[in-house]
Write a structure and sequence with these properties.
Elements lengths: L4 H14 L12 H8 L3 H13 L3 E4 L3 E4 L5 E3 L6 H7 L4 E12 L2 H7 L6 E11 L2 E10 L17 H8 L4 E9 L3 H7 L7 E10 L2 E11 L4 E3 L5
Helix pairs in contact: 1-3, 2-3
């Protein structure tokens, strides 16, 4: 059976994207241009572009055209999601590697952010989260022991710190900031990136009804991750 003409157009566009000839944000040929190139009707070209848009490979903007979509994973700025659930929602596998799990004494900035006295005992963890075979997030947390008394006993290769803490001390509010940062040699090595690669750092502080639960610093390679959200007015 002969290949449908709109399918040939789709496969051509996918090859250009997979081969990185067209990158995220690049404009793809218009319906008219594709119709001429493939000797098809404009309606056939429109169907190919529409289906690729529905599959998330293209973004279509009225009056401007179709553009290659950004395929990097995206997390919502407006929600707090556990990284393992976020990865699973993309149909990928999650793996966690615990790099540090200890009790320590809070320095002044950490104690101040957690509402504790300088030198107070806190729980400290560093967990590296992988998506398939690629490290995606380095998570560092300082936890008030009052709100996570068994924190050091948890197996964070099976349950994420976020899921554990929200389960025993349900969150009522949070504040967070995001900035571009350069990382240390140690962090770059963990994420398997060059040290000069820009990274995104999300710092988040969360509360339960009784007080401040934890302070988290989440670092993502900028080439592998992005943040976004949608607001209704």
């Amino acid at each position: 059976m002969a290949q449908a003409r709109y399918t040939a157009i789709k496969e051509h566009i996918i090859r250009q994207i997979d081969g990185r000839h067209w990158l995220a944000g690049d404009r793809v040929p218009s319906e008219n241009e594709l119709a001429v190139e493939f000797a098809v009707s404009r309606m056939t070209a429109r169907r190919a572009l529409q289906e690729l848009s529905e599959q998330g490979l293209l973004v279509r903007t009225q009056g401007l055209g179709s553009f290659v979509a950004d395929s990097r994973p995206m997390s919502s700025l407006l929600e707090i999601n556990s990284i393992d659930r976020e990865i699973a929602a993309r149909g990928h596998s999650h793996r966690a590697e615990v790099l540090c799990l200890e009790e320590c004494h809070a320095d002044h900035p950490t104690a101040l952010m957690l509402g504790l006295a300088d030198g107070a005992a806190v729980y400290h963890s560093i967990v590296l989260h992988w998506e398939n075979n690629t490290p995606l997030q380095r998570e560092e947390r300082f936890v008030n022991p009052l709100f996570g008394p068994d924190y050091l006993k948890q197996d964070f290769t099976r349950v994420t710190p976020s899921v554990y803490l929200s389960g025993i001390s349900p969150l009522t509010e949070a504040d967070q900031t995001i900035e571009a940062v350069n990382v240390s040699t140690e962090v770059a090595a963990a994420l398997q990136i060059a040290q000069d690669e820009p990274c995104l750092q999300l710092k988040r502080r969360t509360w339960c009804q009784r007080g401040i639960v934890n302070l988290a610093s989440l670092v993502y390679p900028g080439s592998r991750y992005r943040f976004g959200g949608h607001l209704n007015f």
